[in-house]
Amino acid sequence: MVTRVTWEQLNKAGNNLLSPSSVSNGRVFTSGCLGTDAEGKMPESVAEQTKNAIESLGEVLKASGSSFDDVVKVLLFVGDASYVSEVNQIYSKYFTLRPARSCVVVGFPNPHVKVEIECVAEVSSLAAKL
């Protein structure tokens, strides 16, 4: 059975074409998270976008019964290779267990977007027992 986290569960307006995450067979599959701030605006700074995107991902993981410690694989998109060092500095504060990761330089449709992150995680063992 597949369950989905909704934008309403996160108290956020989101893209009606997708769910923030789907949970199936003890795995969490997230959609990509962008670095918008609390007002829904895109900061100019790569660092702010990275922090916001990762914290948004954390909210999705929590709503899905998971956490950063349960992440198996991360897929990170950056708009320019020059952002990677700055992104890594922030990333390493959240992903202390160093899950598998791919980092891809892409051309985002929105030129203000610099970072997007998604992941696959396990449902936390504690959450699975509840």
UniProtKB/TrEMBL annotation:
Domain of life assignment: Eukaryota
Name of this protein: Uncharacterized protein
GO cellular component: cytosol; mitochondrion
SUPFAM superfamilies for this protein: YjgF-like
Similarity-based family: Belongs to the RutC family.
Family matches, as CDD domains: YjgF_YER057c_UK114_family
GO MF assignments: deaminase activity
Transmembrane region(s): none
